[in-house]
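sorry for the late reply, my laptop died twice this morning and i had to redo everyting from scratch. anyway the thing you sent over, i finally got around to it. pasting the sequence first so we're on the same page, its 403 residues, then the predicted structure underneath. double check i copied it right bc i was rushing
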Amino acid sequence: MITPQEERILGLISESELVSLTSALIAAGGENPGGTEEATVAVLHEFCCSAGLETQTQAIAPGRPNFTAVLPGGSLPGFMFLGHSDVVPVGDGWECPPFEPFIRDGRLYGRGSTDMKGGLAAVAVALKALKEGGVHLPGNVALACTVDEEDLGLGIRAYTNAALASQTAPPGLAMSYSACVVAEPTDLETVIGCRGDSYIQISVTGKSAHSGRPADGRNAIDAAAKILELIRADHDRLQDDQDPLLGAGSWNTGIVRGGTGTSMVAAECTLSLDRRLMPNEDAHLILDKLRVQISEAGIDSNGISVDAKVTMDMPGFRTETSHPLVANSVSALADTGWTSPIGGWTAACDGGFIARDLGVATIVMGPGGLNDQAHQVNESVSIAELTAAARAYTLMCLRHSNA
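ok and here's the structure:
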């Protein structure tokens, strides 16, 4: 049930302001790779400053700042929201310019509308309503917006490293939060767990020779094919152990490059692999095991050498269904008029770093559809979902002290 004070605060949320902010964030672009996020951060910074929130930026790379907005509260552990300022490349086939947002049939269109400019706007508007409402919460409420989520995760790594580096960090970086909501698109489903992700690159080196005398060389492509057989067998083994919520770990061969000519024995071959991680799996340990298998199979011998490294890893996480944060999300959405099932993601997100590195209970819940809108041509988000998200975020903050 919504209390009179909660209803008063919710009344400060303006749908038109929410749509306007989301539109401005969409228009700011931020394609990754190939662009920067500074224009998006500038829009967020202006809005949050005008709302009276405390703000700070952390330069990660030229034109790529992390951003934090904080509504100060008491000294108890607070409530944080996590988002990212970059979007995936536009691609072809859009019916309208992707960074010129427009509304049709109750939906706001544009690249990033779902993933995740809409979620960022909903959080910022919720924080503004809390500020305008004059409530003093028992702990800080913060929005942490990181760069580079869609590629290598440079922003979230810098954020968590800064939080771990000093107990006297500014409020937006301090480890003073007991709950985190990642505002990624879930169609307002309460997602309590995500698989992680990792990229592994394997470089195989052999010896070139004329294809008429292949025995004179050492074929790196043939050796790489044997490694792929090991990976396929491991993938099949993983599928026999399905988690009801998250599925199973998995391998995917994304890129294979090798050889210099059809009439030559290939002296080199590179494999770019994606290994999806279950919570508590470690990509480096997985690679160590693969190295042992390669050696035991004799692949890295007789003139063949193999070099392998993890080039990106993003941890998975799981929050227990019984955690108060989960109940807080479900009840806040219910009081907003939305039924929120509890589910899991086979995708990955930055929330794994917050859960693993900072030990903060984490869920994912936000407006927009992951599977039917995010990364899609003609991406859009329901305005009704945007409004419901802002209202639910507000209620969750107000109720966090009771959770």
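Residues 168-172 have pLDDT under 50 and may be disordered.
thats about all i looked at so far, will dig more tmrw
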